[in-house]
Amino acid sequence: MTELDVTPTPLALLMLGRQSDAASERGVDCPGALPPASDPSLVERAREAKAALGGKVFVLGHHYQRDEVIAFADVTGDSFRLAQQAAARPDAPYIVFCGVHFMAESADILTGPGQHVVLPDLAAGCSMADMATFEQVEDCWDQLVEAGVADATVPVSYMNSSAAIKGFTGRHGGTICTSSNAQRALDWAFGKGTKVLFLPDQHLGRNTAVRDLGLSLDDCVVWNPRKPMGGNTVQQLQAAKMILWKGHCSVHGRFTVDAVIDVRARVPGVQVLVHPECSYEVVSAADLVGSTERIIKLVEASPAGSKWAIGTELNLVQRLANAHPDKTIVFLEKTVCFCSTMNRIDLPHLVWALEELVAGRIPNQITVEPETAAYARQALDQMLALP
Ligand code: 13P
Ligand code: SF4
Q1: Are residues 152 and 184 in the same domain?
Q2: Is 160 in the pocket of ligand 1 (CB under 6 A)?
Q3: Which of 98, 128, 301, 320 has the most neighbouring CB atoms within 10 Å?
Q4: pLDDT tens digit string along 345-363?
Q5: What is the pTM of this model?
Q6: Is 339 in the pocket of ligand 2 (CB under 6 A)?
Q7: Do 164 and 117 have their domain in common?
């Protein structure tokens, strides 16, 4: 964990929550008084606002959130657990989602009409989710129809996708998956059809299909939305079992096979544990693979003296290292890999959101339009019901 090496994005150049970016899908407006990060009373203000709201607020925190935010989460989890938890709290009128936009949308879809989902900073998006737009996916489906393969194809969409893509998935009889149930989702889908259109993370799709289901790399084709027929011939589409959308996570894309080789030399006896959003080559070079929840469980269950090199977002790895001083826990890359959008949710934004709720205003509410939500709910319910 050494020097900071984060690629600046146009959004990162904006002061947090203070301005708006017309080119951004979500904007970063944060009306009202956002407390400065230097305010020494932030922790106290967050405590007071939470206490004033009592059981009316339920704060969810994804494992990639900052420590200062996790400290106020009623529950922490991976995206699957957080979706389950949101669905299991019909009594809380306010769900404050400390995570990213697609997670808050899913929470809105899974909660009742009297519940309001709040995302403390609207700029907390996910670059992977943005790699599959609704128009591109509809266009892809039309081309699969043209190629004569749509009837045999079941869409399986990663949770990291917009509500519109989840709606598409439900409308075409598919399911959502997360990194903790992707294998079960693919087993289910191959019981229904002979092909899967996997959106939008090619790596999770490929890793699960090849490593868990025993398909071959040749069974997989990549769909590039910028090319006719996704860059494939009709014959290739007919022969393929997995049609993998050309999307990826820029954070997990930074882990390399060289880093795996390097850490094995630096830390003898180390076990390399990576998230399945890493490339097939990196996952194959590692010892173990798992969702954020599985990563935590594996480290927690390991004996004192265990050595781990972990390939996932840095907030989580640092928290694990701090919580387990009796184990050696190192970050797989030499450069820093925070998820910059997850990091948008900081204590000032959380305080602002909670204090707005105390004042009777609902800030940054995330709502999904009803028709999309109904289809997306079918796909999410299918995930929650996976055997
Ligand atoms: P999990 O499903 O493991 O929580 O991962 C979500 C995510 O965004 C990983 O980049
Ligand atoms: Fe999206 Fe990657 Fe951040 Fe996860 S780590 S929220 S996939 S950009």
Answers
A1: yes
A2: yes
A3: 98
A4: 999 999 999 999 999 999 9
A5: 0.90
A6: yes
A7: no
